[in-house]
Amino acid sequence: MPQDNSFDIVCKTDPEELRNAVQHTQKELTQRFDFKGSKASIELDNKESTVTLVAEDEFKIGQLRDMFENKLIKRGLSPKTVKYSEPQPGGKMTVSQTAKFQAGIAPEDAKKIVKLIKDQKVKVQVNIQGEQVRVTGKSKDDLQACMTAVRAANFDFDCQFTNYR
User: Where are the CATH 3.30.70.990 domain residues in the chain?
Assistant: First the structure.
């Protein structure tokens, strides 16, 4: 009996790489001329996987967010995993914004992935398993075609492929 091959589609953030990205952003923040003497900061809350950005105004929050996203990309993390809150006025004439990292694929996003794969008309089975999507099929070529289609779809959330067997 031929064995089925499978892979999982997940969305997760490596906590070590996230911590490194925050530390590199903090270091760049101390070295940048346009942030000298300002009240800008970036802090990581490990328990909740959130990052808090603080600056003097919304323009500097935007610059800080760009710096942070560049560090994420350099560390191999996708900025699509980040959902930002609206900038909120903070104490001492500052503005703060929180960045929450997506963990798992939301049910409505999982349904988009399932629909996309079913529309490919390849011989695979697609199952939503909690916060991940499992794709199973006899042919590795069909699985590769599914991966290619998901990558090309350019969803507004991040997709990674794990447990490829």
Answer: 15-101
Q: Where are the strands (E) in 11-113, listed by range?
A: 41-45, 50-55, 82-84, 88-90, 94-101
DSSP letter at 46 equals T
Q: Which CATH architecture has domain 5-12+104-162?
A: 2-Layer Sandwich (3.30)
4, pLDDT greater than 90: no
CA proximity to 149, closest of 128, 138, 135 = 135
Contacting residues for 165 by C-beta, under 8 A, at least 6 apart: 5, 6, 7
Q: How far is CA 101 from CA 47, 78, 92, 113, in A?
A: 12, 10, 27, 20
Q: Where in the chain is the domain with CATH 3.30.70.860?
A: 5-12+104-162
Q: What is the CATH number of domain 15-101?
A: 3.30.70.990
Torsional class of 132: left (φ above 0), alpha (ψ -120 to 50), beta (otherwise): beta
Reported as a single tens digit per residue, the pLDDT across 11-27 is 888 889 999 999 999 99
- Strands 50-55 and 41-45, bridge-based pairing: antiparallel
